Amino acid sequence: MTSDESIRQDDGAKDAEGGKMVQSTSRHHLIRPYEDFFDRPLKGPERGVRIFPWIAYVLVTIYLKVFHRVRVEGRENLGLLPEGTAAIVSGNHTSYLDPILLVWAFKLNIRFIAKEELFEHRVLRGLLARLGSFPIKRETADRSAIRRSLASLARGEHLGIFPEGTRIRHEGQVPTYHAGVALIARMAKVPVIPVGIQGADRVKPVGSKLFRFPKIVIRIGKPVWCEEFDGYPRKQRGEIMTDELMAMSYALRDGVPFERVGQDGGTDGGAHA
């Protein structure tokens, strides 16, 4: 049995469990178990479920505009997506603020795969779940996370992934990319949108106890399709695609052409001052 078939089989078994998820929809969203939000659509008729994210969105907008003069560039590239098509959003990761920035930039229509350790904190897991995040067991083939990813994309929800896997805090920290972004993109038959975040690493620099308020720029690149890498050997496609996506993210972060990545001792990953 292939992994795709087993995942679909799991979905069928879940639907046959006696409607546990359906029963939970009658609860108020503030007392509903956080797990209920992992599979709940970001857009839907249940207005109450979306009150909290929109309140948070307004507050975050005020904070980002006032304290970080945040700017989004390249939003027109989202218009290159076929109508109704979601995409995986792949970006550089230097700050805890990065997911918040992308949720804000994509106007709440994006979910994030987050390491399961973040869901061990009672308050944090409730916030993450209500904003659309769900956990993944790192260093394993987490089938439930893959299933949720495919379902989210099928509903038209963008999916945020940081291939670096963890925050890159300084230039000496060598990133190790995870090819999950390419795997899920090929399984879901959706494109990947590279993004670059500039300035978030300076909000709380390494070794500093104080928070700062630098200007932050979010740059959105053009969609990249898996088929563009079909000319490479099958076993190498995921790794090559991930490497190129991260090179694009670093170039977007630094505001330089993609061809300059890795040249002149410049945009080679890591946090930049």
Write the topology of this structure:
Blueprint: H1 3-15, H2 20-24, H3 51-67, E1 71-73, E2 88-91, H4 98-105, E3 110-115, H5 122-130, E4 134-136, H6 143-154, E5 158-161, H7 180-188, E6 192-198, E7 217-220, H8 234-254
Parallel strand pairs: 1-7, 2-5, 2-6, 3-4, 3-5
Antiparallel strand pairs: 6-7
Helix pairs in contact: 1-6, 7-8
Entry keywords:
273 residues, globular, single chain, Glycerol-3-phosphate (1)-acyltransferase, seven-stranded mixed beta sheet, alpha/beta
Commentary on this structure:
With 273 residues, the chain is of the alpha/beta class. Strand 3 (110-115), helix 5 and strand 4 (134-136) form a beta-alpha-beta unit. Helix 1 (3-15) packs across helix 6 (143-154) and helix 7 (180-188) packs across helix 8 (234-254). The protein has helices at residues 3-15, 20-24, 51-67, 98-105, 122-130, 143-154, 180-188, 234-254, and strands spanning 71-73, 88-91, 110-115, 134-136, 158-161, 192-198, 217-220. A seven-stranded mixed β-sheet has the order 1-7-6-2-5-3-4, with helices on both faces. Residues 5-26 and 260-267 have low confidence and may be disordered. The chain has a single domain (3-260), classed as Glycerol-3-phosphate (1)-acyltransferase (3-Layer(aba) Sandwich). It is built from eight helices and seven strands.
